[in-house]
Amino acid sequence: MSANERGQCPPHGTRPPEPSDQALRELHRVDAGDFSTAGEASASIKRVLRRMGIDPDVIRRVSVASYEVEINLVIHSFGGTMEMILDGDWLTIVSRDTGPGIEDVSLAMTEGWSTATEEVREKGFGAGMGLPNVKRNTDYFDIVSRAGVGTTMRMGFKIQ
Amino acid sequence: MAVTLNELKDALNLTELTASPDLSRTVESGYCCDLLSWVLARGAQGMAWITVQTHMNAVAIATLLDMSCVILPDNIQPEPDTLAKAGEEGVAVFVSPDNAYAICGKMWAMGIPAAAKG
Fold it and tell me: Is residue B114 situated within a structural domain?
């Protein structure tokens, strides 16, 4: 398998349509290693959905997936962003980081597999459940990563 | 008849650590786990969650999942930042002299169920 093939795995679900010009967008920065602010992007996304009266079950799935991704950025990345895009029937969250990238994405998607440090595990994270948890709670999920470059994840949720 | 946080506090001899949370809120279910991803996957609205995790990320999870409260067993004292965050988010945090197993048993005896599987 080439490095390119190891950097992605088959997408899950039907990809949401490209957002229109009317899409509501919100960009959040997530800093590497900052556990004290981890969850703020997810909390902000949740507040927007609540204000809009979105179904509580959808909000719960979005909260779980977005928090897992946010904590992943804190634990594993050099820092990145989470963008919320609300458009029509879909909410899309795109996470982008600047590295270090995931060498083998299929392995990272395997339940129980983790590269987290002992310190992170003591906090109750790093059990290798994050990415499978994300996928399970989304209507669409894809991940593309290049070692040394970074990782982009796209999560789609049908909100109506 | 649903149990309120106020009733839970009295029955379990809990100490309230957060300033003025809404103690009229009902407790829908109970849970005990310290692996945060596991809790994220199985947590539910209205849940009373027993954990030894005392850092801010536990509060973040309780907030995101709309839990009714976090209960720290064995008189564990949380970090000050955790309580500040819980106060901001309106999450009730209690500490109990009992261990996690005893707290679970008492909550079960009060009729607080396990959450339905999501």
Answer: no
Cα separation, B26 vs A152, in Å, equals 40
- Residue contact B60–A38, C-beta within 8 A: yes
| Domain ranges within chain A, ordered by starting residue | 3-8+23-158
pTM for this predicted structure: 0.91
| CA A40 – CA A43 distance, rounded (Å) | 5
Cβ contacts from A onto B, under 8 A? 66
| Topology annotation, domain A3-8+23-158 | Heat Shock Protein 90 (3.30.565)
Q: What distance in Å separates residue A2's CA from the closest CA in chain B?
A: 31
CA distance to partner chain B, nearest, from residue A139 (Å): 16
Whether residue B40 and residue A68 make contact (CB cut-off 8 A), yes or no, is yes
In chain A, residues with a C-beta closer than 8 Å to the C-beta of B116 are: none
Residue B99 domain boundaries = 3-109
> What are B26's two structure tokens?
């009902």
Q: Given a cut of 70, is residue A50 above it in pLDDT?
A: yes
Give this complex's ipTM: 0.85
Interface check for B56 against chain A (CB to CB < 8 A): the answer is yes
Check pLDDT > 90 for residue B116.
no
Q: Single out the residue of B95, B81, B94, B90 nearest to residue B20, CA to CA.
A: B90
Domain CATH code at residue B79: 3.40.1390.20
Q: Which of these, A98, A107, A92, lies nearest to A139 by C-alpha position?
A: A92
